[in-house]
Amino acid sequence: MASRTLALALAAVFAGSSALAQEALKAAYRADGLPLDPRADVWQEVPSMTVTLEGQTVTEPMVMEASITEVQVQALTDGRDIAFRLVWQDTTEDRFQVVGRFSDAVAVMVPYRPSDEVPITMGAPGDRVLILHWAAFRQENLDNGYADVTKLHPNAVYDWYPHAKKPYRYPEDWRNQYALAYIGGEKLFRKNTLNTPVREVVAEGFGTSTWKDVQRAEGKGVYADGSWQVVIRRRFVEENTSNPDWGPGKRTFFTVAVWDGSAGDRGGRKTLGYAWIPLEVEAAP
Amino acid sequence: MPTVYNWQIRRELDYPYEHERPKKQFAMVMDLNKCIACQTCTIACKTTWTPGRGQEYMLWNNVETKPYGFYPLGWDVKLLDLLGDSQKWVDATYEGPTLFDVAPEGDTLGKWMPDEYDWAFPNVGEDEVSEPVDVGTVMETLPHLAWMFYLPRICNHCTYPACVAACPRKAIYKRPEDGIVLIDPERCEGYQECVAACPYKKSIFNAVARISQKCIGCFPKVEAGYQPQCVTTCIGRIRLQGFISPPDQVRPDNPIDFLVHVKKVALPLYPQTGLEPNVYYIPPIHVPRSFLRQMFGPGVDHALRTYERMRRGEEPELQGLLHLFGSTERISHSFRVVDGEVIGFDEHGREIVRVPLVEPYQERPHEDPALEVVRQDIP
Question: Could you tell me which chain B residue has the CA closest to the CA of A188?
Answer without folding.
Answer: B186
